[in-house]
């Protein structure tokens, strides 16, 4: 199991004889061995994942509107926490997006390598807005930011960068993608378009 930046895993001192249950706040990547006598459960932000022996990623930061569960291999089932409705079974190469407010889930195909690249030392941004990218970077490098143009915040980017690089290197890669300018003002990074 790997934990991403600003993430927390909560687990009992000893698992019971009937189940193994943990809680994730933030993002974690799991490799879980199948044990039919003691199923493995992950709780996060109002959602429960039942694991059947698998590799998967769960992204459940408290400030985000959604919980993203991505299955790399094996099998998992999801449902809202403390809900009696039927479980949604996820197949490899797919991502379940649980909307916290509505307590509903939809599924989409994804490139699992892009989603899970963080635990292998890379930032991989596939079809993410600049605001989503900056939120991810701010968690890792611990900084505040402000995007001055709402259209720029919603601009979609695709690319990758080494995770253990200096922040300045990662920002330079983003600047080279065009149209973006970064400047530091006190403790905050201000992001503008090149013509501002």
Describe this structure in words.
The chain is of the alpha+beta class and 196 residues long. It contains 4 helices and 14 strands. Strands 1, 2, 3, 4, 5, 6, 7, 8 and 9 form a 9-stranded mixed beta sheet that branches. Strand 8 and strand 9 (104-109) form a beta hairpin. The chain is elongated and about 60 Å long.
Descriptive key words:
single chain; 196 residues; alpha+beta; Jelly Rolls; Phage tail protein beta-alpha-beta fold; 2 domains; nine-stranded mixed sheet; three-stranded mixed sheet; 4 helices; 14 strands; 50% strand
Q: Could you give the count of β-strands?
A: 14
Q: How many structural units, i.e. domains?
A: 2
Strand content: over 45%
The number of distinct helices, counting runs of at least 4 residues, comes to: 4
Radius of gyration (CA) equals 18 Å
At the third CATH level, what is the topology name of the largest domain? Jelly Rolls
**Uncertain regions spanning at least 5 consecutive residues:** none
Shape: elongated
Task: Estimate the helix proportion, in percent.
Answer: 10-25%
**CA distance, first residue to last residue:** 44 Å
H-E order: EEEEEEEEEHEHEHEHEE
């Amino acid at each position: 199991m790997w934990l991403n930046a600003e993430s927390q895993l909560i687990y009992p001192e000893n698992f019971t004889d009937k189940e193994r249950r943990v809680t994730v706040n933030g993002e974690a990547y799991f490799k879980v061995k199948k044990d039919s006598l003691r199923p493995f459960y992950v709780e996060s932000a109002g959602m429960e994942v039942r694991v059947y022996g698998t590799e998967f990623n769960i992204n459940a930061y408290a400030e985000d509107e959604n919980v993203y569960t991505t299955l790399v291999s094996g099998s998992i089932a999801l449902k809202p926490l403390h809900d009696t409705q039927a479980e949604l079974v996820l197949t490899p190469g797919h991502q379940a997006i649980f909307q916290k407010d509505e307590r509903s889930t939809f599924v989409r195909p994804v490139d699992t390598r892009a989603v899970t690249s963080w635990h292998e030392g890379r930032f991989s941004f596939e079809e993410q807005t600049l605001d989503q990218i900056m939120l991810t970077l701010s968690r890792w490098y611990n900084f505040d930011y402000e995007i001055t143009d709402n259209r720029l915040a919603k601009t979609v980017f695709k690319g990758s960068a080494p995770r253990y690089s200096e922040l300045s290197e990662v920002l330079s890669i983003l600047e080279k993608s065009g149209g973006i300018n970064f400047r530091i003002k006190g403790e905050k990074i201000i992001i503008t378009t090149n013509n501002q």
